[in-house]
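User: Could you go from structure to sequence for me? I need the amino acid at each position, not a summary. Structure tokens:
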């Protein structure tokens, strides 16, 4: 059996009881560590499971899936995913390959940033398409996600923005094991995301439209959701741009652009996170 197991959002103890039982009876255990990171290192996972874990990079999952699926019809193999297994597209592909190879698959779900975004107080039912924001490069300022935000805004829906993670393939194993790596990974912070959004607006980048957002659009930052260091802040993009980057805390970060169909209860909930209210009350 191939068990595809969600680890949840924070530490080694967020795995479900069913997930843990599957891990403990598996002969081989892989951890997918390139679409997201768990906020603890692999040795901590290994100690908790009492089993060794192989860190699988993108290449292994996407092109060498035969190694992961090897003999999985006869023995138990676990494939661990941070968050929920269906919270990233690559895992659907592995499940399809397993099915095609006649390997039975069981998915064990867990919390994902896709539902933990509800910690903002916004109703999950009122969200539209989720988008990912890539890092700007020296020669490229991608804005292709902006029309999808505009689509959501037209229907009054909120938009969850997932922020880029850049890590060299060859560093993933060391990173996951908490070892030193030559080139540290880059996790996009809320400050970088806000600056990039405002740059696209100021430069009138191709693809940018004010139907998607302006500097007065209400946004919510989500840092380390599900952990003890969770930080949530709400304000217009212009206000969030003024917040000291340190205040958002360590990665991982996400953001929400708030749509116009804001229910009174949602508005009341996010008031507590408001950066402008804080200033007024200080
Ligand atoms: C490609 S998604 C993978 C999602 C994961 N499979 C899940 O189900 O949650 C990774 C992105 O989700 C967001 N994210 C994941 N965990 C988070 C957390 N605990 N707090 C805030 N954002 C998080 C970050 O923007 C990160 O770059």
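Assistant: Here is the amino acid at each position, in order:
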């Amino acid at each position: 059996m191939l068990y595809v197991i969600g680890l949840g959002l924070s530490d080694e103890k967020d795995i479900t009881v069913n997930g843990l039982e599957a891990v403990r009876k598996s002969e081989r255990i892989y951890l997918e560590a390139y679409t997201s990171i768990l906020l603890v290192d692999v040795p901590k996972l290994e100690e908790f499971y009492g089993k060794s874990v192989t860190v699988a990079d993108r290449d292994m999952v996407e092109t060498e899936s035969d190694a992961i699926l090897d003999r999985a019809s006869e023995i138990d193999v676990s494939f661990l995913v941070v968050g929920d297994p269906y919270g990233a597209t690559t895992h659907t592909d592995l499940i399809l390959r397993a099915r095609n190879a006649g390997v039975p698959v069981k998915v064990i779900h867990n919390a994902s940033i896709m539902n933990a975004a509800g910690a903002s107080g916004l109703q999950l039912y009122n969200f539209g398409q989720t988008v990912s924001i890539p890092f700007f490069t020296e020669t490229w300022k991608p804005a292709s996600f902006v029309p999808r935000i505009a689509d959501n805004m037209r229907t009054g829906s909120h938009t969850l923005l997932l922020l880029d993670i850049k890590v060299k393939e060859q560093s993933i194993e060391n990173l996951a094991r908490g070892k030193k790596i030559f080139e540290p990974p880059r996790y996009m912070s809320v400050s970088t995301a806000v600056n990039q959004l405002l740059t696209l607006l100021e430069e009138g980048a191709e693809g940018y439209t004010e139907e998607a957002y302006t500097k007065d659009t209400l946004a919510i930052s989500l840092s380390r959701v599900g952990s003890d260091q969770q930080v949530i802040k709400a304000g217009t993009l212009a206000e969030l741009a003024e917040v000291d980057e340190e205040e958002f805390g360590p990665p991982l970060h996400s953001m929400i652009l708030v749509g116009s169909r804001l229910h009174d209860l949602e508005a009341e909930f996010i008031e507590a996170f408001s950066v402008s209210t804080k200033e007024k009350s200080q």
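One structural detail worth keeping in mind: The pocket of S-adenosylmethionine is lined by residues 9, 35-36, 81-84, 87-88, 112-114, 162-163, 165, 222, 224-226, 252-254 (CB under 6 Å).
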